[in-house]
Write a structure and sequence with these properties.
Helix content is 45%, strand content 8%. The longest helix has 18 residues. Strands 2-3-1-4-5 form a five-stranded parallel beta sheet, sandwiched between helices. With 204 residues, it is an alpha/beta fold. The protein has one domain: 3-Layer(aba) Sandwich (Rossmann fold), CATH 3.40.50.300.
Length: 204
């Protein structure tokens, strides 16, 4: 199975909601950071990519129809080149300030040292392509702008889908040439949901 959609939007741009939506539309799994957390055997792929050693993308995405969120978003140029027929989905927030508030309250608040073995190197590799100054609002927002503009400058309009939370099925379904589902677009992993999930004790 080849990827049909390569997500270039960084974390906290509605990517978990997109994961559920794309799985419904495409009828197959969508790769997301949750996949890495649930499948630690995937960590070496991404730590290698962070060192500049790109893995076999077909092995990474075997069985998946799309990818969104970090870590894949950090390597969207290489992944989209490996899947030239895939659409590139750039998810953003209404403003860099809104994005940073969400990221600072969630993913940027996690201490990499508290993560399972190898994941700290994975995170360093991802942010090495974005900015290591994630706790500096100005640096992080500048990196966010630069990342999004690089996608817009590099991807032909015919291949690019721009989407923001709240826009629902429309932009994605139009690009895929599909009818919009009757049910509401999924809305999950808000800041409150993320913090609640993080506070839960690990399952035995």
């Amino acid at each position: 199975m080849a990827l049909k959609i390569v997500g270039a939007g960084v974390g906290r741009t509605g990517t978990e909601s997109l994961k559920l939506a794309l799985e419904q539309l495409l009828g197959a799994p969508c790769y997301h950071m949750l996949e890495v957390l649930q499948h630690p055997e995937a960590v070496p792929y991404w730590t290698a990519a962070g060192r500049g050693e790109m893995p076999d993308w077909e092995a990474v995405f075997d069985g998946y129809a799309a990818c969104v969120d970090w870590p894949a978003a950090a390597f969207w140029p290489e992944i989209s080149a490996a899947y030239p027929d895939a659409l590139v989905l750039l998810s953003t927030r209404a403003s860099a300030e809104e994005w940073y508030r969400s990221a600072a309250a969630t993913i940027f608040a996690i201490d990499p040292a508290s993560m399972p073995a190898g994941n700290a190197d994975l995170i360093t590799g991802i942010f090495g392509r974005f900015t290591l100054d994630i706790n500096d609002p100005e640096a992080a927002m500048a990196a966010y702008h630069a990342h999004n503009q690089a996608v817009r400058d590099s991807v032909p309009a015919s291949r690019l889908i721009e989407w923001q939370p709240g826009e629902g099925w429309g932009p994605i379904c139009r690009a895929l040439g599909m009818a919009e589902p009757d049910e509401a677009f999924p809305h999950v992993n808000t800041t409150a949901m993320f913090q609640e999930r993080l506070a839960r004790p690990p399952e035995a």
